[in-house]
Model the fold of this input.
Amino acid sequence: MAALNYRIASELVREVERPKDARHYTIVCDACGARFEDDGSTLQCVNTHEPGLLRTEYEERTFKIDQRAEGLYRYRAWLPSIRNLSGSGRTVTYRSDALSRITELPNLWIAFNGYWPEKDAWLATSTFKELEAFTVLSRRPRKHDDVLVVASAGNTAAAFARACSLNNVHCLIVVPEFGLQNLQFSDLLNPCVKIVSIVGFTDYCDAMTLADRVSSVDGFLAEGGVRNIARRDGLGTTMLNAVEAIGRIPDYYFQAIGSGAGAIAVYEAAKRLIDDGGFGNNLPRLMLSQNLPFVPIYTSWKSRQRDLVKIDAEDGKKQIQQIAAHVLSNRKPPYSIKGGVFDVLNETEGDMLVADNIETLHASRLFEQAEGIDIDPASGVAFATLMKAVRYGQIEPDATVLLNITGGGRYRSWLDKKMIPARPDLLVDGSEITSDETLERIIGLFR
Ligand SMILES: [Zn+2]
Done:
């Protein structure tokens, strides 16, 4: 910690003269070793080969914090951003006596992503998806005309809708019907943001299918999900914030996952911190969780196979309807891909855990009673699995443990602020997502 403070004091914001839009990082493809310059939106390698995730390699190898910067731009040395946008927030990491007593873990830290004024937590849509939205937008070139296309189960939609609205970025949000409830804002959305809701027996994967179709049309650009380096590095600031607070890399990291982009991001951020040398040499063990009965990553991991278990579309959707944490509902997560969830679980000697709805709701209530702030059911899943892991002796009592809380204070923000539910600009029936007419209607929203 002392080393970090010294660095902040002595090297505070060393501005480097650069031409506008010059980038302070290189893109690296671990699958073939290619290294290339970023154009601000690329999602895949310049060479043709099996799919793999690209990653960023920053010129700055030490962990630098810009204390003057707003929100997550505090960590901009390790963000693929060429400008700081207004309205961003960041994670707040703290220790809680009450939660330490409940879990019997004196070194439990909470990475809180949400709205909680007393803790100086100001994520307006209350989830860590805002970290990715602002980073994705500030990675893009200053001048661009394409409409950004974002598929989401709900929280990412809310984050991008707000960030694009504030910063006047043309954006198409595709969200299944159940995700609409998460789209409530304190201000009216800018008309540059259009929302398409898929109705009927649909889920996040249907949103991805439709978003992929629209992205293939000229003038539309796929945001890219986990393949977008900015999305992962933005999410990775949760680990940077935690290490800024704790002074070292935690031994364990608990998070509930739908796709697992946040977990991959935390792994990548931890590798950068290890390279720095001042925060420990060990990766945190990733203790990731899903909500029963929809647990495809858990099932695949427990059978120790790189291939994701086959999920029948109808069965998967039925299971998704039964889970309390609706956002943990990706039927096609980046599990098998090189650098994906399977690899980061392996490399960190991590594990997959599960919680059912009763355990989830109990854990959510317990957290709220202890802390005085509500949390998303996804965070209830993570907290429930943390308590079970302690009970089953999976965690040493003196371990430094980081619990990722997202969706914190959503109800609190709805009480504090008069929220306006977003209205979809277009409703598409689940049976119409592959029709040409649907495509025409969506394109028409931007004419
Ligand atoms: Zn490559």
Remarks:
- Residues 6-17 have pLDDT under 50 and may be disordered.
